[in-house]
Design a protein that fits this description.
- It is a single chain.
- Strand 2 and strand 3 (20-26) form a beta hairpin.
- By secondary structure, the chain is an alpha+beta fold.
- The longest helix is centred in the C-terminal third of the chain and has 22 residues, at 330-351.
- The strands form six sheets. It has a five-stranded antiparallel sheet, covered by helices on one side. Strands 9-8-10-16-11 form a five-stranded antiparallel sheet.
- The protein contains seven helices and 18 strands.
Length: 355
């Protein structure tokens, strides 16, 4: 198991092609009414879309093994399990000898004795399925506290959406397979993905997430700071390669007089005139929307022949990946980003700041 969190502890278990995978939540409030239909809807947003996603289909049906009865939490510990139906591992034979570039195969084979590379094992993006389920619970809890979390595809390949959307409009991305914000962007991003698929290649992109409703002073400090906790959870998502808040790396091109967010009193409340910091200063919320972006690498499984090594002969070799793979995981990662953000924020709320 792989645990994380303070008051809200998340334990992840299982593997991509094992009988099951799932997670255990410790510290979740009891007697909490769960909207099971909304939870199923959130889980469905992580599934691949026809045409732009992997052909592998799984029901991703959540089984509450402990802590939930008749749609209500009965214990502070909740165990959720997803049983894998499609466990065909034939496409992965040989990768323990010729590891795939960009995958965890090589370091995992060196670290773990008798490691099985099938489906990426515990390093697979499939491991986000139970995390999205847990995040769906956290989102419902936070919504009751006035906190909303929404994400969308900021970019896919060379297509980038630089429009600044109102926070209350971001749920529009749920209407499009690419998780874009508009039909025009969805069409352009779809073309990027399909072009990569036709070339037996893949592409990456960026997911932007916005959290609203956090009061001034919300969060922990230092190693448990709000942005530190968010960043840790984001980098736990397979294929994530970077996280930035507010203006991110572009803030290095600004002067302090340009990057600082001036404060103002409006209708008796303190606000900021800009949000270059992304709503977090000193690891604490300044009351503005928490805005961050996560960069995802291109899917490493591609149909183009790649150079690798043969671990049996210790000679140079080549490998070609076949099977069921996403040409771009960004649209599916949107749900994972929202879920991981919800888990991090809920843990911060339970641990440091009561809303």
């Amino acid at each position: 198991m792989f645990p994380v969190g303070n008051k809200l502890r998340i334990h992840l278990f299982g593997k991509s092609h094992a009988e099951c995978l799932g997670c255990i939540l410790e510290g979740f409030p009891t007697d909490f009414e769960i909207d099971l239909d909304e939870m199923d809807r959130q889980i469905a947003l992580r599934k691949p879309s026809d045409g732009i996603g992997t052909p592998r289909k799984e029901k991703d049906a959540i089984v509450f093994e402990h802590g939930v009865k008749d749609g209500k939490t009965t214990d502070s510990t909740i165990e959720m399990v997803i049983y894998n139906g499609n466990r065909d591992s034939s496409a992965y034979s040989g990768f323990n000898i010729t590891p795939r570039p960009g995958h965890s195969d090589l370091p995992a084979l060196f670290k773990f004795k008798n490691y099985d590379v099938s489906g990426g094992a515990q390093f697979s993006g499939r491991m986000t399925a139970p995390l999205v389920a847990a995040g769906a619970l956290a989102k419902q809890y936070l919504k009751g506290k006035g906190v909303e979390i929404h994400a969308f595809s900021k970019s896919i390949g060379t297509v980038r959406d630089d429009t600044e959307y109102p926070a209350d409009s971001l749920s529009a991305s749920e209407s499009f397979p690419t998780r874009a914000m508009t039909s025009e962007m969805n069409e352009a991003m779809t073309k990027e993905i399909m072009d990569a698929r036709e070339q037996k290649d893949s592409i990456g992109g960026i997911v932007e997430c916005v959290v609203t409703g956090l009061p001034i002073g919300f969060g922990g400090e230092w190693f448990d700071a709000l942005d530190v906790s968010i960043a840790r959870m984001m980098m736990s998502i397979p294929a994530a390669k970077g996280v930035e808040f507010g203006k991110g790396f572009d803030i290095t091109k600004m002067k302090g007089s340009e990057s600082n967010d001036p404060y103002s009193v409006e209708d008796g409340k303190i606000t900021a005139l800009t949000n270059n910091m992304g709503g977090v200063v000193g690891g604490l919320s300044d009351g503005m929307p928490l805005v961050f972006r996560v960069a995802f690498k291109p899917t490493p499984s591609i149909g183009i022949e790649q150079k690798t090594v043969n671990l049996k002969t210790m000679e140079n070799d080549t490998v070609t990946v076949k099977g069921r793979h996403d040409p771009c995981i960004v649209p599916r990662a949107v749900a994972a980003v929202e879920a991981m953000a919800a888990l991090a924020v809920m843990d911060q709320e339970l641990t440091f700041t009561s809303i």
